[in-house]
């Protein structure tokens, strides 16, 4: 009878014991923070009791090995462990496995394999200059300092993202710099004139899947251009007692035209249609402008100007009083 009872109870005890083992560590991931540390994380599973984790590593292409230990009583980073200099060399291949142990037993993860250059992460670059290039339109040049702790034996790939200061939509360009290239600049072309842009930059070791964080944002403005043409129109008022006619002139940029410049002023000249010798000229910085004309027909022309040049001429005919 006792043997029968023992045979019935033994499988239950085994089942209970196995259920109390720690969960097998899964999803192991490692990042090599260049010249700082190698940090590995994992998914620990649901823990019902105190669990100690030991990360076992081989390095120097399998010639050396060491351990790193953490436990579930540590509220922060309980599923992470780091290896520090000088026990990190690059380039190198290493293996990582995580062992979980509690009072009821030990369970070990699958072995994982890591090539350090493929998981290297650097500090972000530092942008120190965003400025236009003299005489080159719609372009700004970005200059930066590459991360001090970056592999000297590897090329660096970059992502530069940018937006206008009033926009929330980022645009991106990607490029690679050769490790021997001392020129840490990039020319961003095809931009809007006289527009302020926000720039940020990140980098990664060529061949690594981990990008640096984004650099601090920096702002710069493209050069202005000579003004574009204006739309000119008029408001005709009734003639005064002396026969002179008040004519109000108004102008604006065409609908949808980009702001390319800071306008310094406007030149307006006008003359009777049949007598160009009576041309008069006015310079102004404001609008509207009111002219007092005779009863005959007139031609009115105007340009805007800035430090870089003049706009195309806008011209308007003022009809004579008797014209309908």
TrEMBL record:
Stored PANTHER family: INTERLEUKIN-27 RECEPTOR SUBUNIT ALPHA
Species of the source: Cebus imitator (Panamanian white-faced capuchin)
Domain Fibronectin type-III residues, every copy: 124-225
Keyword Transmembrane helix: yes
Keywords per UniProt: Cell membrane, Glycoprotein, Membrane, Receptor, Repeat, Signal, Transmembrane, Transmembrane helix
Annotated signal sequence range: 1-19
Entry GO terms, CC: plasma membrane
Cross-referenced InterPro entries: FN3_dom, FN3_sf, Ig-like_fold, Type1_Cytokine_Rcpt_Type2, TypeI_recpt_CBD
Keyword Membrane: yes
Domain of life: Eukaryota
Membrane protein topology class: Single-pass type I membrane protein
UniProt-annotated location(s): Cell membrane
Transmembrane portions of the chain: none
Name of this protein: Interleukin 31 receptor A
Pfam families in the record: IL6Ra-bind
Stated family: Belongs to the type I cytokine receptor family. Type 2 subfamily.
PROSITE patterns: FN3
